Amino acid sequence: MAMVRRAVLVVGNAAMAESLARMLSEAGFEPFVAQPQTDPVDLVHAHHPHVVLLDREWKAGDRDALELCRTLKYQRETNLVPVILITNGDSSDDRLDGVRVGADAYLARPVRPEDLTRALDQATAWRREHERHGLAGEIRFRIRSEFEYLRQLNDMLADLFAHTRLTDKQIKELRQAVHEMGGNAIEWGHRRNADLPLAVTYRIYPDKVTLIVRDQGPGFDRNNLPHAASEDDPVAHMEYRMAHNMRDGGFGIMMARGLVDEFAYNEEGNEVTLVKRFPPAE
C-alpha cells in the first residue's frame, strides 16, 4: 500500500482552500488546512507534512505569509519541509520576496491542477535528494548586489550559525569569509550593478556548514588574477593594482581561503563554496 503524503495548506480564502484541498487529494496528498484559530507552525509540527502550500495573501494578526515562511525555514525541525508560495500571477516582486525568506517553489494564482502537480513533484524530489545526501537543512537567499544587503544577510547567517556547533571563533571566521566573497561577487562579478541578484545558499550537514555564493557574472580565470594576492607572493599584486589605478586590496580570496576548512570555485569562476566543519563532539 502506497504511503499517503501529507500537505499543510495555509490560505486566507475558504473557497480557495477548498479548491486546493480537492486538488491535493486528487494528487495523492492528505491535506491539512490551517484554520483561522490555528497556528500554522503548530500544524506543521503536528503532521510532519511533505510540503506546505502558502498563499502570499495569507495574514494572521501581525504575521504575514513571508514571516511564516521565514519561521519555517529558520527552524531546524521544519527547515527541510518544502514551501510552495502561491503568488499573484507572475509577480516578480512576490517571487523575489519569497526567495529572500527561503520559499522553494512558486505557483501563480489561479492555480491549475497540472501546475500544482508539477510543483509538488519538484518539491518532494528536492527534499528526497537532500535527505539522500544527509543534508539537515537548507536556506536559499537572493539579495540585491549592495553591501548593505550583504551586511544584513551576514547578520541573518550569524543567527543561523549560532544554532549550530560552530564556536564563536568559527562563526567570526565564516562571517568574514562570506563578507569577502560576497563583496568580490558584487564588485567584480556584478560590477556593482545592484539589480543583478546575488545568490547565497546555506546548508547544514551533521558534520559541517556549507555556504555557496554565486553571482550572475561571466566568471574569471582562476589561474590569471594579477590584481589578487597569492600565497606564493602575497604583495606582488600591489604593483599591478597601482599601475592600473586600482584601490588597495586584492586579499579577499587568499583571506577567505584561510578562514574556512574547504574553499572551491566552480569551473566558470562565478560560484564559490565555503565549508566550515564542526569541532569534535565532547
Automatic annotation (TrEMBL):
Residues the record lists as 4-aspartylphosphate modifications: 55
Name listed for the protein in its UniProt record: Response regulator receiver protein
Residues passing through the membrane, by range: none
Domain Response regulatory per the UniProt entry, residue ranges: 6-124
Record's keyword terms, sorted: DNA-binding, Phosphoprotein, Transcription, Transcription regulation, Two-component regulatory system
Gene Ontology biological process terms from the UniProt entry: regulation of DNA-templated transcription
Cited SUPFAM superfamilies: ATPase domain of HSP90 chaperone/DNA topoisomerase II/histidine kinase, CheY-like
